[in-house]
Amino acid sequence: MNDTVKQLARNLLTPHPEVDARIEHGIELHRKGTASFTVADAKGAKVPGAEVTFTLKRHDFDFGCNAFVYRQFEGAGENEAYEALFTDVFNLAVIPFYWSDLEVEPGKPRFTKDSPFVYRRPPVDALLEFCESHGITPKGHPLVWHAFVPNWLDADDPLLANRWERRVREIAERYGDRIQNWDVVNEVVDNGFRDHPKVPGPSHAHFAFDIAQRYLPQSCRLNYNDYAVWGALRDRYTPATMLVENLMRTGHRVGGFGLQYHMFERDLDAMLANYPATMLNQEHLVDCLDTHASLGVPLNISEITVTAREDLGNDNLAFQAYAIERLYRLWFSHPAVNGIIYWNLVDDTAYSPAGSLWNENFFKGGLVTRAFKPKPAYQAVRNLVRDEWTTRETVTFDPQKPCYLRGFYGTYEVRIKLPGGRVETTTARLVKDRKNRFAFTV
User: What is the rounded CA–CA span in Å between residue 113 and residue 111?
Assistant: First the structure.
């Protein structure tokens, strides 16, 4: 790696015995489980010699990405290429519910597949259909965010709170049963905890959770989401932990804590000066995870951008791939983390508002190029999810001794080859924090 990349990644490149041990043992301890199994015929007689092959088909852990440009390409085969790359790795898709884009005209929410086009905001029904056809978990994002409020919403409207409540109720009634994972409120810390004129106070985080838990089913996971987490650690707290703790103490049902990870420092010198101590310091990252986990709320690494910016030189792609592999291992090994969600799959499809100097495409954070060529970073994620963190094991059943599957938590295809040559297939799910016992009848 060139000198710039070595300087930036020095605390990732340097071995750290404690962190290395936590990663190695944490994956085995927290991401894998054991199931005992038996094979019997319809009369209950055990079948010795049956060869049972377990193949992991779907992780219980969420490996996700936003799907904001689903079916938004015009080039020949581009939409198909996007879907193939997406479904080959990810089992969770973030669906956009930004109010200003979802309801451009008051009273006309863009739910249905034939809704008017808005860039990076595909209609909800179309994305849900995609998710359900591929067995992908949908995640709604966000219900309340002060940064994406419709222009037509009047801050002086005496019915302001009612309009917000109507929005959440309408979404809950339509999608509450089909989407069980929601970012309720986004980046309140960014707003300095102050009221926003178009979001009811005195605390719009509390207001957001009030209306979300009023209308969404009890089965839904309600997340708080923020980026003021990695660089804001002070002793054993961050501003975001303080807010979430307050939400919990005031009776709000916080079921998930989203920790964003965006390498969005535009100034390279500032990045080289600050990131090795925070964003790219594995000991610091573990401290941050432990601090946020201390609240007892499941964590998800909710939005990830790892830069491959061009001013890193000709090792920019190698840096991105190395950093992503190391970060994914660290996050996956931590017991409190239940999901890792990359933010933009394709280069040059990131947030870049018209008329603004802010353009996230500068960071080249996609996992594939705009020409849909997988970058080394994409291959790094795929190798972890599809190759290293997978299980395919064959065990010959012997009724005279215990027989076990040891594997990653998730849904398995089970192929049972009987001594006479007949083959039966079924499925089984290895579940965390449960005594798993499979009884197969052939």
Answer: 7
CA angle (133 as vertex; 132, 136 as ends), nearest 5:
50
**Between vectors from CA 433 to CA 430 and to CA 438, what angle results, nearest 5°?**
35
182-191 tens-digit pLDDT: 999 999 987 5
Q: State the DSSP H helix or E strand holding residue 321, giving kind and residue range, or none if neither.
A: helix 316-333
- Which pLDDT tens digit goes with each residue over 55-77? 999 999 999 999 999 999 999 99
CA 80, CA 76: separation in Å to the nearest integer? 9
Q: Output b/e per residue, 332-351; b: 16+ Cβ within 10 A.
A: bbbbbbbbbbbbbbbbebbe
Q: Which residue has 């808005």 as its token pair?
A: 118
Q: Which of 386, 409, 301 has its CA nearest to residue 64?
A: 301
3-class SS of residue 114:
coil
Token pair of 391 as six digits: 């299980």
**CA atoms of 70 and 340, how far apart (whole Å):** 20
**This prediction's pTM:** 0.97
Q: Residue 333 and residue 161: Cα distance in Å, rounded?
A: 41
